[in-house]
Automatic annotation (TrEMBL):
This is Tetratricopeptide-like helical domain containing protein. Pfam families: PPR, PPR_2. PROSITE patterns: PPR (PS51375). Transmembrane segments: none annotated. Belongs to the PPR family. P subfamily. PPR repeats lie at residues 234-268, 269-303, 304-338, 339-373, 374-408, 514-548, 549-583, 584-618, 619-653, 654-688, 805-839, 840-874, 875-909, 910-944.
Length: 990
């Protein structure tokens, strides 16, 4: 085999990649190669090698060539020497190739070393020695070929050879550059155990591990550095570990490291003291936090505003407002003045506790002391006023904010949206952007356009874009806020593509989007189910240096859970863990809620335990979610036990958790147990609200206790508890379901059940100051009385502030349909469209069902056709409703045709629809079609009910279709269905 000369290999690699340049000799023949070497010793050695080759002493010649290659002063000299041997037919041997590869790698000629290795060692099946393997690991790492490097390192270890420091350093560097930090950590531990110490890697690994949240691994590197390598930790290393512990909430480990730093004489600054205080405040250990403050003062380290604000936040978050004020007074004694952050913390915590008036007083105090409140102060106050339905004060507070010269931001816009009905997103965005332009940039909005109320909807968007252009010219930072407001408005209006175009416009103007902007777009894409586009958007974020936060991941996980894609949601959670980002309690709550709804309660329980193990403090919301998961899956004991555990952990139950537990117990027919917790709730001073009443009304209606639901509504009215949107939707839909069938009477309930419901009602009544009234009397005893009640309820709903609302309109239309007042149903159908609400599948299905119940199947077909014509694709429920209507009308052929259409569109028949079809075909004496339907039902794993299968078998027997009859009979026996059939079994001869 003719081998390529090393000179040609060098030239080939040089053309592929620019390497360190050095001149090659013009002459490369064996006769002139000696003249290129200045050193006489080398000339004599080459002469000796040539003589040895001629005498056949090849092994000795190889050793001479190897020695010359090893001691060559440059790569070019080494290649000339090697070529000398090759041209004389000498097989250089493994030692020479190893020496040459070592020299190539050492001089940075890694690509040439790789080619040399592959063509002269690997391709010839030569087993490389440790020298070659060592340097090829370095070579492959430098070329970025990690898999090849790992493979050759494994071969080196199989030869029981420990890698050198250079080899280890190369592999560590490659792993580090690839962000494979845990692999780098594992390799570092391994080489340390093999007594290969790379102390300079300790600092780099600790930095990256702490940044990713791998604190156990970082601490292990720290211990290796001190115990095995003998290096003393630097101040930077101590601080890196300390802040890493604080970030993960490992306050005990942070405290130990803190003490060690003090013992080593390391100066502890106020930032470190504040961080430790913050962690104790987060874990609600205020005594420990105050102990750190005293320790800080004792060492002569004076606290600053941030330290005191952290303590104030900790006390006020626990509801200890007086102690928070004490800290604020101590600030003044220490020569500090409470700043806007101090007041912002107090206002925020007052609002969380529902003490809006106290928050407003503090805000006014700030203004009186010439301390301008931040936009955050106004935002939390507006949000709190909205919760208390104090809508007039919201507008006044917003005007006061503008008059104080405070520039609104995107978060305030998002908060204000809740105070406006849907459809006003752009008007509100225009209003906020005008304030940003006027206060923040000095732009006079009147110069740009006419007043907002004279603009049409399309013109308003154009006006916003013009205004944004002016803000960009004046202040690029406020422009980012303005674009964030506009993009949120587009997303809220369902214009995701327009929002993405706006994002591109920002980039073209050199305006960097805020994280809030990206989160708004990600939420909109998730709502549309476009999760692949979400991944692309996150990649764009990272390119622009915007890092996804917990809110980003929460939006993604919420979207995936709503789509029922739990596996992807768990994948996102694992990705967060890989990134070293600790998921918040809201993320766990979303996943636990989804697992509970899918009846995967054991996995929900495991996720709850994982949350605790990760050091995430559960709040009342996630406790309530887990309690609901237990109750909805029949594990009542575990649900009640977790409720008690929540109280043991100093989380006082509010209406949220009490409602979940009481409602869940009532739903599981354990009303007597629900009474126990209702009584405890009242003793705790928690008054029943609209949410509890709504849940009890809903369960009453679902269980057929119509009169009881009416009494609850009456009690709500007398207790002056105002209905909300959900209450009206639950009531109108529940009442309408009871119109066609008279609800169960109280005297049909068993004595224990009746006593429990009576006790529940009496407890609710005791929470009011109303006189005792017999609210349990039954006044509605006929379907006509229920219809009258439903019509009165509909009339009341039409006058509420919640109209127009699609859900309420659907409930109203349903009520009129069940009351067989179709004209009034159509009047509301047209009214909702005039008010800008587009009917959905539910609306059309309700109208179809109304016509079916009134026996007007042609009108039902007309509504179905209108549904398609209006671009509203029928869903499974709509198809099945019309199909059952056709069967009820005795039109089996039309029903069968519709079932074929359903299959073409990927919609499958429900069991009830199959039963209707089978019944219709039997009634029409269409035995062949009925038998085929029977086979389809069995193939779909649906078992026909006894009446239909008896009818089909009788019809087949009467028409002497004994083979089909035998198939029906045997199939049902195979399915384990008892016939109880009064005829003699017909046996069919095979």
């Amino acid at each position: 085999m003719i081998r390529r000369s090393l000179n040609s290999l060098y030239l080939f690699c040089k053309s592929r990649r620019a390497l360190t340049s050095w001149a090659l000799p013009m002459e490369t023949t064996s006769d002139t190669s000696f003249s290129t070497i200045a050193n006489d010793h080398k000339s004599l050695c080459l002469t000796l090698a040539e003589q040895l080759i001629r005498r056949g002493l090849l092994s000795s010649a190889q050793q001479v060539i190897q020695r010359l290659v090893s001691h060559s002063s440059s790569v070019s000299d080494a290649i000339w020497v090697a070529n000398f041997g090759i041209e004389r037919g000498l097989d250089l041997g493994l030692g020479t190739y190893g020496a040459l590869i070592k020299k190539l790698v050492g001089s940075g000629q890694h690509q040439l070393a790789e080619v040399l290795y592959h063509e002269n060692v690997r391709s010839r099946g030569i087993d490389p020695d440790p020298l070659i393997l060592t340097h090829m690991v370095i070579c492959f790492c430098t070329l970025g070929k990690l898999e090849e490097a790992s493979f050759h390192l494994s071969r080196l270890l199989m030869k029981s050879c420990a890698p050198c420091k250079a080899t280890c350093n190369s592999l560590l560097q490659e792993l580090y550059d690839r962000e494979m930090i845990l692999d780098a950590f594992d390799f570092f531990v391994w080489i340390s155990n093999a007594r290969v110490f790379l102390g300079f890697w300790c600092n780099r690994l600790i930095d990256r591990l702490c940044n990713r949240g791998y604190m156990d691994e970082a601490l292990q590197v720290f211990d290796i550095m001190r115990e095995k390598i003998g290096y003393l930790p630097t101040v930077h290393m101590y601080k890196t570990l300390f802040y890493g512990f604080c970030k993960r909430g490992w306050v005990f480990e942070a405290e130990l490291l803190f003490a060690e730093m003090e013992s080593q004489g390391v100066y502890i600054d106020k930032t470190m003291y504040t961080s430790l205080i913050s962690e104790y405040c987060k874990s609600k250990k205020m005594k420990m936090a105050m102990r750190v403050l005293l320790r800080m003062l004792k060492t002569g380290c004076e606290p600053d505003n941030r330290t005191c604000n952290t303590l104030i936040h900790g006390f006020m978050k626990l509801g200890l407002f007086e102690k928070g004020w004490v800290i604020s007074k101590q600030m003044i004694e220490l020569g500090m003045q409470p700043d806007v952050i101090t007041c912002g913390i107090m206002i925020s915590e007052y609002c969380k506790e529902g003490k809006c008036d106290s928050a407003l007083m503090l805000l006014n105090t700030m203004v009186g002391c010439n301390v301008t409140p931040s936009v955050h102060c106004y935002t939390v106050l507006i949000n709190a006023l909205h919760r208390e339905n104090r809508f007039m004060e919201i507008d006044e507070l917003y005007e006061s904010m503008l008059n104080s010269g405070v520039v609104p931001d995107h978060v305030l816009y998002f908060t204000l949206l809740r105070n406006y009905p849907k459809g006003h997103e752009f008007q509100l965005a225009h209003m906020v952007l005008q304030a940003i332009g006027k206060i923040g940039c000095g732009i006079d909005p009147s110069v740009l356009s006419a007043s907002t109320h004279m603009l049409r909807h399309g013109d308003l968007e154009q006006e916003i874009e013009i205004l944004l252009g002016e803000i960009v010219k004046s202040n690029i930072n406020l422009a980012a806020v303005g674009f964030s407001v506009y993009i949120l408005a587009l997303c809220m209006d369902g214009k995701t593509n327009a929002a993405l175009n706006c994002l591109n416009r920002m980039a073209s103007l050199g305006c960097k989007p805020l994280l809030f902007t990206y989160n708004s777009l990600i939420k909109s894409l998730c709502q549309d189910g476009l999760f692949e586009d979400v991944e692309s958007l996150i990649a764009i974020m990272e390119e622009q240096g915007v890092i996804a936060d917990r809110t980003t991941y929460l939006i993604m996980i919420n979207g995936l859970c709503k789509q029922g894609d739990l596996e992807s949601a768990l994948g996102v959670l694992d990705h967060m863990d890989d990134m070293g980002m600790k998921p918040g309690v809201a993320i766990y709550d979303s996943i636990i809620d989804c697992l509970g709804r899918e009846k995967r309660v054991l996995e929900a329980e495991s996720m709850f335990k994982r949350m605790l193990e990760e050091g995430v403090d559960p709040d009342e919301v996630v406790y309530t979610t887990m309690i609901m998961a237990y109750l909805n899956n029949g594990r009542v004991f575990e649900g009640r036990q977790l409720f008690e555990k929540m109280m043991e952990n100093s989380i006082q139950p509010s209406m949220l958790s009490y409602t979940a537990l009481i409602s869940g117990l009532v739903k599981r027919n354990m009303t007597d147990k629900g009474c126990i917790y209702l009584a405890r709730m009242l003793r705790d001073g928690v008054s029943p609200n609209v949410v509890l009443y709504t849940s009890l009304i809903s369960h009453s209606l679902k269980k057929g206790k119509f009169e009881y639901a009416v009494r609850l509504v009456d009690l709500m009215d007398n207790s002056q508890i105002e209905f909300d949107l959900v209450s009206y939707i639950v009531l109108v839909s529940g009442v309408c379901r009871n119109i066609p069938v008279i609800s169960k009477k109280w005297h049909n309930l068993n004595r224990n059940n009746l006593r429990a419901w009576q006790m529940l009602f009496l407890l609710l009544h005791q929470s009011t100051l109303l006189p005792k009234v017999n609210y349990l009397q039954v006044h509605l005893s006929s379907s006509e009385e229920i219809k009258c009640f439903a019509v009165k309820l509909i009339q009341k709903i039409q006058d509420t502030r919640f109209m127009p609302n699609l859900y309420l309109y659907n409930g109203i239309i349903s009520g009129f349909c069940w009351a067989q007042r179709m004209q009034e149903a159509y009047d509301n159908f047209e009214s909702m469209q005039r008010q800008g609400l587009r009917p959905n599948q539910v609306t059309y299905t309700i109208l179809m069902n109304g016509h079916v119940h009134s026996g007007d199947i042609d009108s039902a077909i007309g509504i179905f056709n209108k549904m398609n014509a209006d671009g509203c694709d029928p869903d499974r429920i709509a198809y099945n409703t019309l199909l059952r209507g056709l069967c009820k009308a005795g039109r089996p052929v039309d029903a069968l045709t519709l079932s074929y259409t359903m299959r073409k569109r990927g919609v499958f028949l429900s069991k009830l629809s199959y039963e209707s079809l089978l019944n219709c075909f039997c009634a029409s004496n269409l035995d062949d079609g009925a038998f085929k339907l029977f086979e389809e039902m069995i193939a779909s794993n649906y078992i026909p009910r006894r009446f239909n299968r008896h009818w089909l078998l009788s019809m087949l027997c009467e028409k002497s279709k004994l083979r089909e009859a035998q198939i029906v009979f045997d199939t049902m026996l195979e399915k384990g269905q008892a016939w109880n059939y009064g005829r003699k079994r017909v046996f069919v001869e095979s």
